[in-house]
Amino acid sequence: MSRQKAEGKFLQTLAGTRFPTPPIWLMRQAGRYLPEYRAVRATTKSFLEFCYTPDKAIEVTLQPIRRFGFDAAIIFSDILVVPDALGQKVWFEEGEGPKLEALTDPSQFGRLSRARIADHLAPVYEAIRQTRAALPPETALLGFAGAPFTLACYMIEGSGSKDFAKVKTWAYSHPESFGLLIDLLVEAVVDHLAYQVEAGVNGVQLFDSWAGVLPEEQLFHWSLDPMMRIAKGLRERHPEVPIIAFPRAVGPAMLMYRRPDTFSALSIDTGIGAHWAAKELQPHICLQGNLDPIMLVAGGQAMEREAMRILDKLGHGPFVFNLGHGVVPQTPPDNVAHLVEIVRNWKPGAP
Ligand code: 1CP
Asked: Which stretches does DSSP call E strand in 136-273?
C-alpha cells in the first residue's frame, strides 16, 4: 500500500517547508456547531453506531472541508472506540457524554483483548479508505487516537471527571498494575494507528487531553513515555508517518515533549503563551495551535486581534494554525469562515 506523497500545504509544513501563510484545520471541526452535521447525526441514535457507519462518518468528515476548505480533514471517530474494541462496555448518553463500565480491579484486564481491533474497527478503516479517495489531493487526512493516560482516565473513571481521583489513586497506589493497563493501551493504540495509516491517513494525532491532571514528576511515566513508545512502535511499521502530540494543559512541562526525533509537531493548548512557545519550543519543533475555542464563539474584533497576535508570534516559524482545544457546539459557523480568511490573508511582518 503506497501512501500519498507529502502533497499539500499541511503535510509539507510538517516536513519542513515554509509558506507565506500557515495551513489551518481545527480540532473537532466536524460536530454539532454545523447544522449539516446535526442533520446527519439525527439519523442514528447511538453515537458509536454513528461512528461505525462509514457513509455517515465520511459525510461528516467532508462537511467542514466543503464549507471552509481546511488544509486537513480529521476522520470522524472517537478516542473511545479503542476501549470499545478491546471489549469494555462503552456507550454515550445524550447530553452527558461517554459512559463506560469502569475498571475497578486488575483482574478485569484479562477481558480486554487487542485481537478484536482489526475486525471491530473495520468500519473506521473503510471510512478512511473512502474519505481519502473523496478528498482533494492537497487536503491531508489525519487519523488519531487517545493517548494511553487519557484512555485510562475514561476506562477507570467510567466517564469524564472533575478531578480524576479514581484513576490517579490507582496510578499512585498501584503503579505496577496501572502500568500493565498502560502497556496494553500502548500496544492497542499502535495497532489502531497502523491500521489507519494502512487505510490511507497521511498523519496521526495523539490526544493526551487529560495529561494536565498529573503532577509534573508523574508526567514522564504516564503520559510522555507511553506516547514515545507508541511513536516508536508506529514508525517500526510506517517509518515516514507524521505524528502530532497533544499533551493538553501540561504548562511549561511541554519542554519535555519537545522531541523532534519522535514527534513531527506539538499541538499547544490555550494555556501556553505564544511568545514563550516561539522562544522555547518552535526553534526545535513545528507547533500547532492555539486560539482559545471561546474566541471562536466571541468572533469579531476580539477574535481578529487574538488570531493576529498568534500569527505574529508563531507564523514565522514552522506552524499549523489550530485551536487550543476542540470547537464547541455554540460556535457560529460564520466565525469559522472569518478565521480562515484572517489566517489566509495574514501578511508576515518582521518577526
Ligand atoms: O454528536 C455528538 O453529540 C457527540 C459529540 C462528539 C463528537 C462530535 C463526541 C463525544 N465525539 C465526537 C467526535 C470526536 N471526538 C472527534 C472527531 C473529529 C473532529 O475533531 O472533527 C475527535 C478527534 C474526538 C476526540 C475525543 N473524544 C477526545 C480528544 C480530544 C478532546 O476533545 O480533548 C476526547 C477526550 C473524547 C471523548 C469524548 N467524546 C465525546 C465527548 C463529548 C467527549 C468528551 C467528554 C469529556 O469532556 O470528558
From this structure: 140-146, 203-208, 243-247, 265-267
